[in-house]
Amino acid sequence: MCSCGATLGSGARRGEGYVAQFRIPELAKLPLAPPLPGQEHPMTPTLHMAAIPTHDRDFVASLAKGLSILSAFEHADVLGNQELVDLTGMPKATVSRFTGTLEKLGYLRFDEKQRKYRVGGRVLNLGSITMQKHGIQRVSAPFMQQLADELDVSVLLATREHSRMLLLDIVRPPICSVTINKQVGDLLAMETTSLGLAYLVASPTRERAAILKELQRVSSVDWPSYRADVERVHAEYKRLGFVVSRRVRGGVLSAAAVPIVSSGSEIFVLSCAAPSQQLSKARLEKRVGPRVAEAAKAIQTALRTG
User: Fold this and answer.
1) CB distance 284 to 256 below 8 Å
2) Between the CA atoms of 45, 195, 304 and 133, what dihedral angle is there, to the nearest 10 degrees?
3) Disulfide engineering: 171 pairs with which of 80, 81, 155, 184, CB 3.0-4.6 Å?
4) Same domain? 56 vs 141
5) Please, which residues have CB within 8 angstroms of residue 94's CB and are 6 or more apart in sequence?
6) For the ranges 30-39, 67-76, 132-141, 232-241, which has the lowest average pLDDT?
7) Residue 237: which domain range?
């Protein structure tokens, strides 16, 4: 079983001067080199307080601190104050005040047996209401099932959560035994997935610039290669109408992905992934990619008219 979502490798063609001649203006504003030691952040940049933009007049740091506490529960179901200190970089006294406040408001629940916190009912209710409102899973479900049955691939639906991709739905292939070992609610690395790169293709300039700036500070990102990948997929999407990735994670997985933009400008990504031996370059570009694009267009139309 593959342990991650469909990823886009760094083996893109790069001709002489390719990286320097940017077609994406946001990339030209960012340095070519990776961050210096001490500047990078090993986790999601929006979670760790060291990444907070202290000079931004429109940024409320106290609110960001409270939200970073809630974001930490992406990493575990149950967390104590010390674990939250380690994840957020905040002092223990500050963490204690925020967890106490969030518990009183119902956003966290204290587990007496473990003496740690869990996500509270207000967070769960907010998520449920949000998903019911835009109804993306309900609309996309028949199209995803059809793609899985017709192409014998794993079909994924995701959206952005900070600088990662949140898996909203997944349909397994009916025959193929190699599938994606992920569940709904899991977070996938934005910089290494076709889901994330397809999201960047559709994101507005300001949002894309913010995402790229965050990812540039993540220590695990091979920044020069990623810059070139972003350039490549923009050109690829313009030419093909979908983003293609082949032979990633040791040649195990290949995928085609397409962004979907709702009437409320929410961006989702639909992707079909399967073993690389099953998805040749020709099949990806001639069969799988076009079918994903057709399904994405149908879902987008249904979202906007429904």
Assistant:
1) yes
2) -50
3) 155
4) no
5) 65
6) 30-39
7) 127-305
90 and 140 together in one domain: no
Secondary structure E strands in the chain: 108-111, 116-119, 154-161, 164-171, 187-189, 243-248, 253-261, 267-275
Predicted confidence band of residue 10 (pLDDT cuts 50, 70, 90): very low
65-79 confidence digits (pLDDT tens): 888 999 888 778 899
Residue 87 tokens, joined:
């994840």
Question: Residue 174 corresponds to which amino acid?
Answer: P
What pLDDT, on a 0 to 100 scale, did the predictor assign at position 71? 86
Structure tokens of 206?
A: 């300001």
CA triple 71-72-78, angle to 5 deg: 125
Last residue of a domain, one of 126, 142, 158: 126
Separation of alpha carbons 248 and 232, rounded Å: 16
Mean of per-residue pLDDT scores for the chain: 79
The residue ranking higher by pLDDT, 240 or 220, is 240
Token pair of 68 as six digits: 């970073």
